Amino acid sequence: MRYPKAHADSSGWVPFALRGRKSVRTALAFAVAGIVGLPVMVSSPAFATTPDPTLSMPTPSAVTEGGNITFSMTSTTSGTWTITTTPAVSNGAVSGTDYTALPTTPYTVTFAGAETKTVVITTTDDALYENAETFTLRATNANATDWTEAVGTINDNDSKPSYTLTASPTTVTESAGAKSTITATLSAPSGVETTVGLTTADGTATSGVAPAGDYTALVGAPTDQIVIAAGQLSGTKDVSVTNDTVKDAQDTESFTVNGLVVGTTLPTTASTTVSIKDAQATPKLTLSGGGQTNEGSNATYTVTTDTKSEVPITVQWEAVDTTPATGNGKATPGYDFTYPANRSVTIAPGGTSTTITVPTLTDSLDEPNEDYAIQLLSPTNAALGATIKATGTIVDAVGDLGPTVTISPSSVTEGDADKKWATFTASLSSQSGKTVKVDWATVDGTALAGKDYVAGSGQLVFEPGTTTQTFTVDIIGDRIDEGSGEAFTVTTTAVPGETPASLSASGPATVTITDDDSAPTIASFDDSLVKEGNDPWVSVLPIKLSNPSDHAIKLDLTDTPGTASNALGVVGSYDYTLLNTTVTIPPEMTTGWVAVLVNGDAVFEGDETTSITATAQAGVNGQNYMTSPFADSATLTLQNDDDAPDLEVTSVTGAEGESVAVKGVITGQSQSSTVVNVTFTGGSVSGSKAADNNDFSNPGVQPLTIAAGTAPGTIVNITSIPLTQDNVAEPAETIIASGFGVGNVGTVTDGIITIAANGGTPGEEPGEEPGEEPGEEPGEAPKPTIKAPARVTGPSTVEVDGTVAPNAEVQVWGGAVGSGALKPLRTITADEDGYYWFEQRITSGYRFATLSQNMRSNEVAVFMTQNPTLVVSTTTRGQLNLGVKGNPAGAGQTAAIQQWRNGAWVTIRSGKTGADGVYRTGPKFASGSSVVLRAWVAGEPGRGTLPNFTAQQRVTVR
C-alpha cells in the first residue's frame, strides 16, 4: 500500500478517549479519525516524500495469527533503510498486541549493493474472534526522502463464540410490575457487534392481557433484541409478567424465550425458560387416622384439604421409618401389611377429603405388636400441610411359634498351610418378629483345637425378619495325610432372657474337616558322597516322604555291597556296617534317618560304593498309609582319602670295587598291588660330584611290585649296584635313585648312593690351589637358589627360602603375577651355611626372585586359590537370601550358586560381584524344604588366582 504525499505530510489528533480491548480501540480510533477527517498519529518516522524505485517490496502472503510474515526487500543500490510499521485504517493490526514490535527503534536494514534482505514479523496468537487485520511495513531511506511499503495481513484462527440465554429471576411471582431480565452472554469476547433477536413461546403460561394472559410476548428484532457491543460479553432485555388474580391449574407455569442471531456472526440459537409462580393460595393437605388394628384387619387413614380446588387433587403415600413404642417391633411393608405398587389417592374437584385403606396381613410368627407409619408426598394441585404422617399398630395374633436354628456347611476343606477362614451360616427355620440371639461354640471331636482348627465362640443376633447370620472358624492347614478327615462340632444355645422361649436349637452340628492331602510316597532317598576318614564314624542318610502321615511309617533297610565291602579279614575290605535295619518315621514327620558306620582306614583304595534300599513294611505299619512307590534306593560312596604307597629308597655308601645292595622302605598301604619303577643316574647332591657311567654299572629300570596289604615300614630289596674300581684320586661321587608309580599310582622318594672318595685330597689337580672345589674358578660364588610353595589358599603369608654363598647379602625381588617387571622388596643376609629365608604377605598370585653377588636366582610363582564364603539367611517365607564373596575379593568377579539335586551339583544362580565385592541373590524354594548349597568364585589365572568352591551348607527354608 502507498500513501499520497498530502496524507504523509499531514498531522492531527482525535480529541477524545476510547476504551475497550486493544483491537477494538484501534479499530474505533481509525473509524472516528475517518469521520472527523483527521489522520491517526502513530509512533513512526516522518513519512518520506516519494516512493523510491531503487527498493522493491512485494506484498507478502497472509498468515494465520501466531505465524511469521516475511517481507522481502530487493535493493538495486547500497544504502540504509529505516523500517517502521503502522496499522491499517480499517481492522488495523497493532504492534505489540497483534504482532511483535520491531526489536529496536529505529530499526534499520543496510544493503551493500544490489541484494535482497528480509524482515520477519512474528504475529500474536490471541483468543479473540475478529476479522482479518492488516498493517503496513514501510522502509524509508536514510535522508527520509524516499520510501517503499507493503501490507501484511493476519488472518484470525479463533472460532466464532457461542452464546447462552439466562433469565433472572428464573421464577417470578405474579405481582404488579413483575418482570424477568433476559441476558445473552457470549462464550468469549468478539471483535464485532452481536445482535440477538428475542421471541417468546407459550408453555403452561400463555401470553396476552390479564386475566387471560400471564406475560407480555416478545416479537423479535428490531423491536425486541439484545445488542452486545464489540469487545463486550453480554446484554439484557426485560420481559414483563402479569398478575391474573385467579388460582391457576398449576402453582407454577412457564414459557420459553428464544434467541435468534441477526446476521451470520454467531453459529447458534439459544433459549431459556421463565417460570411464573401463582400468587393465589395453594390447598394444604393433612393426614389423620391409624391407631391399633388386629392382625388381618384393615386400617383406615383420612386425607383432608383446607381449600377446595377447581382441579382434582392427587397425593401419594408411602411407609416411612418410625420409632416403635416400648416393647413393640417394626412392621415391614409387604410382610406385615399390604403395600401396593400404586399408592395414590384423589380428592375430586370441589371435594374436601378422601381415605387410605391399609390391609394388615396374618402370619405364624411369634412377634410383638408392630408399629408402622405412613406419610403423604408428591401432591398434585395442592401442597402438603403441617400433619402429613400418621402411625398405626398391628396387634399380633395369639399362639404364634418361634423358629429353630441350623448350621451349614457340614464340611470344609483343610488346605496345605497356614490358617484360612471357613464361613458358616446359621439359619432360622422361619422369620421371627422378635430379636433372636443365639450363642455358638466349637467343641473338639477327632479334630483338635489348636492343631486342626482354632477354637471359637460368639453370639449371633437375628434382627426381626432376618433368617441368616454368618460366623467364621479358622481351619489350620497342613500337608499331613489324615485319611477320611477329622471332625468337630458347633453347639448353638438360645440366650436366656433374650430369645423367644419357643426357639429350640437343632442340636450340635458336626463339621468334618475334609483332608486334601495324598497318602505319602517316598519322595527322596538321595545318594551320598563322603570321605572315608581314618577312624570309624557314623554317616547319617536322610530318607524323606513326600508329605507327612498321621500314622507312623516303618521302612525296612537292606544293603547290597558294590565295590565297598563289609567283610572282615582282608586289608581294606571292612568298609562299612549298616547300623539299623528299620527306619520309623513318626506321625506328622517326613524324615527318617539311616545310620551307616563308616570304618575309616589308612589304606589306599578306589572310591567304593554300597546300595541301601528302603522298603515300606506291608500293612498298617507302612503301605496301608502310603501310595506307590513303596521303595527307593540310595548309593553311599566312600571317597578314598589315603595316599598310594610310597617307596622311600634308603641312601647307602660303598667303596669302589664293592657291590652295594639298594633297599627301600614302604610308606602307606594299598588294598591292591602297586607297581613302581626305580631308575639310577649320576647326579650332584649338595655340591657333590655326580658319578658317571664309568663309575658304576647301571642296572636300568627296576620294576618293583608292592603287594596288596603290604604293611607300612616293610623293607624291600630293590637291586644291587656294582661300583667300578679305578686308580684315579677323586672325591666322593653320588648316584640318585628315583622313580615313579606306574599308572600314576604310587610314588618313589629319592635315595642317594654315595661312592666313597678315593686317593689324595679331592680336587687337587695340577695347577689348582688347595681348598678350591673341583670345577670352580677361584672365588666363584654359587648361583642363588630360591624355593616357595606353589599354591596357597586365600590371602596368606608365604615363606620363601633358598641358598647362596655363606653370609652373602641377598636382594629380594617380587611382584604380582601379570604385573610386569619385579621390584626390589628388601635386602637380607644369609647365614654361615648360605641359607636364607623371608616371609611375604600376598593377596593375589605373586612372583619372587633373589639377587646375590651379581647372580640372579630363577623366578618362582605362588598361585593363590580362592577361599570364598557363602552367607545364607532366610527371613521371607519360601525364599533364601544368599551372599557370595571371594577371598581375595573384588568387584566384577564371576560367582555361582549350586544346589545338590538328584546326586549331582546343579548351578541355580550366577552373576557378578558388586562394588562391595559381594554377589547377592534370592532364589525361591518350597517353604519348609531343606536344601544343600555351595558357592563358587572364579579366579584370574592371568593374575595368579584360581577358582574354588565354598564348603556345602544345609539350610531349612522358612
Question: CATH homologous superfamily of the largest domain, by name?
Answer: CalX-beta domain
Characterize the overall form.
Answer: flat
Helical/strand content category: mainly beta
Q: Whole-number average pLDDT?
A: 85
**CATH-derived topology of the largest domain:** Immunoglobulin-like
Radius of gyration: 59 Å
Count of spatially separate domains: 8
Put the structure in a nutshell.
This protein is an all-beta fold. Residues 765-779 have a biased composition (Acidic residues).
Fold blueprint:
Blueprint: H1 5-9, H2 22-36, E1 50-51, E2 55-56, E3 63-64, E4 68-75, E5 79-87, E6 107-111, E7 115-122, E8 133-141, E9 146-155, E10 163-168, E11 171-173, E12 179-186, E13 194-202, E14 225-228, E15 234-240, E16 252-261, E17 270-277, E18 284-289, E19 291-294, E20 298-305, E21 313-320, E22 329-330, E23 344-347, E24 353-359, E25 370-380, E26 383-384, E27 389-395, E28 404-408, E29 411-413, E30 419-428, E31 436-443, E32 457-462, E33 468-476, E34 486-494, E35 504-505, E36 509-514, E37 522-524, E38 528-531, E39 536-545, E40 553-561, E41 576-578, E42 582-585, E43 591-599, E44 603-604, E45 608-616, E46 631-639, E47 646-649, E48 652-654, E49 659-667, E50 669-670, E51 674-682, E52 689-690, E53 702-706, E54 715-722, E55 733-741, E56 747-749, E57 751-755, E58 791-793, E59 796-803, E60 809-816, E61 823-829, E62 835-842, E63 846-852, E64 855-856, E65 860-865, E66 869-873, E67 881-885, E68 894-901, E69 904-912, E70 918-921, E71 930-937, E72 945-946, E73 948-949, E74 953-956
Parallel strand pairs: 1-9, 3-9, 11-17, 18-26, 19-27, 22-25, 28-35, 29-36, 38-46, 44-50, 47-56, 48-57, 52-55, 58-65, 65-72
Antiparallel strand pairs: 2-4, 4-7, 5-6, 5-8, 8-9, 10-12, 12-15, 13-14, 13-16, 16-17, 18-20, 20-24, 21-23, 21-25, 25-27, 28-30, 30-33, 31-32, 31-34, 34-36, 37-39, 39-43, 40-42, 40-45, 41-43, 45-46, 47-49, 49-54, 51-53, 51-55, 55-57, 59-62, 60-61, 60-63, 63-64, 63-65, 66-67, 67-70, 68-69, 68-71, ...
Protein name: Calx-beta domain-containing protein
Keywords: Calcium, Ion transport, Repeat, Signal, Transport
Domain Calx-beta: 272-377, 390-493
